[in-house]
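Pair request: fold both.
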Amino acid sequence: MNAFRSLRISASGLAAERLRMDTITSNMVNATTTRGDDGKPYVRKVAVFQTNLDDAMSKGKENGNTLLGVKAVGIEEDKSPLRRVYDPTHPDSDAEGYVTMPNVNILNEMADMIAATRAYEANVDTLNANKQMFSKALEIGR
């Protein structure tokens, strides 16, 4: 039903931003992990999204119901280089005394977290506005 399309779009935005915040949290927690299960340093993860379009659009039909929100495509590893820090006392240091650290920058993660939080709040506000409109419409019908 078209009346609930905006609710579905907001709900998909909420789910996407929650995944983004979970990914950022994982990055922040592992910012100093120099050895994971595979023996390598943690690599920063990034949530990847794309618009969720109805199959009717790909079939050439234009019925106005094509946008379904956003969907998570996956979580990818950041391709930026890992940091090397001089610390000869660290157990994971190499022969030259350098430790390979994760490519996580806490300041960037905090900025991303603020953006994700604001986007989440915007989706909540949109969801609440739609609920109020539905409520008012029901009151008119009495």
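--- second member of the pair ---
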Amino acid sequence: MQGVSSLVKSTIPNYLSNLPIPDSFTGWFKLSFRDWVTLIPPTAVLAGVGYISYLAFCPAARKCGESGRCNQKVRKHEAKVVDMIDIENIAEKAAFCRCWKTNNWPYCDGSHTKHNNVTGDNVGPLVIKAK
């Protein structure tokens, strides 16, 4: 516990106070190459923390689910889900799912509404109408 206390109370503050951060905007142009190289590690840490925070707190960043897959439940045993439907078998109008959340695959049951609310997406069904 003493090591963590020393790290937080003295090591990190000393490191940050020794960084070559200029007092003015024009001071950035006067930094040497060595000064710029010294600023790379803290900049990388800040960028990483910012990106992880973005992924954690922005629902739109989590596309299609935690695993990155859009299809979470439809015929997972198949290498590729392909459906062929004859036009003659379609009624006056048919709506086909594009969000992979439907319980009536391949037809849309409106599940995309919840998906859009959670993820910030704008997906909707593919609607085919007879002429």
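Observation on the second member. The chain has a mean pLDDT of 83.
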